[in-house]
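Appendix B, record 7
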Amino acid sequence: MNSTPIKVSVVVLAYNHEPFLRQALDGVLGQEVDFNYEIIVGEDYSTDQTRRIVRDYEQRYPTLLKPIYHPHNVGMGPNFHACLQACRGEYIALLEGDDYWTSPLKLRRQVAWLDQNPDFTICFHPVLDHYEDGSRPDAVPHKFKQDVYEFDDFLTPIYTIVSTSATMLRNVRPTWPAWLFTVKPIDFSLVLLYAELGKAKLLPEVMSAYRIHAGGIWSGTPRHLNIKSFLLMYRQLWLHYAATGHGPKLRRHLFDLYLTTANVYANSGLPAGARDLLREALRLEPTRHLTDLPALLGAGLRLARSMARHQRTPAGARPAYPLA
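Structure tokens (predicted):
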């Protein structure tokens, strides 16, 4: 392959992924392509042997691997930002260091679609959930109802339609809002920002796997903290688009998400957090509480039950999770 131009920049985010990173990198290096690509590995000052693995691959594939070695731990957001800024390719493919690609034709198929359809900025595919401990069989969790998506299709606050390891983006966005790299999950917001610029195509074949394990940034975190993070991310999206025609729809979804999060907190034995979330919902949509009375009553009932359980539980046995 010639040294230029770069067709695809593959971003691999690596932090404490020693048991998994080789499989991730081998899946990228095993791609059967007829174009040039580069691999941008953001190594975020891991405490295990992840950096040593990256250096080993850099020595073996010096023309392909372009590592970013942070001198201290910067966190996922700044690491992701640094990697995106380093991308020179026409397209950007994403992968976290504990996930992996399952098809050697993944890049070729996604590039072919985007090359032939310039009005699309995103190409993705279904992803296999792989449970590292074997507690459940591998499965594809989502049943997709369509194969072409537009901006409004991504507004519904479900955890994800487009998984990180499935994503290829047309490299057409010169800048990103600063808040993008402070939220979790980043991929939901990133996809929405790119869907503002073009359509998204779902290819039918499963071509990557999402590894569920105790050390995962998302899968290894308690559910109520994940949904709170998702809520805070979605609030940033609403603020970003509040002055546009998308603002009212995002605001309605955010109200519903506050109620859902309050229910999760109440069911997790965290009544103070649930109460605060209900208050925020009413501040956000003070005129909706009559039309949404059943949902509010349900959330209030769960809160009351949680408070009663909390009062009966000895202080030392209560959940001590932070609310932020």
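Remarks on this record: Residues 306-324 have pLDDT under 50 and may be disordered. The chain has two domains: 8-212, 223-317.
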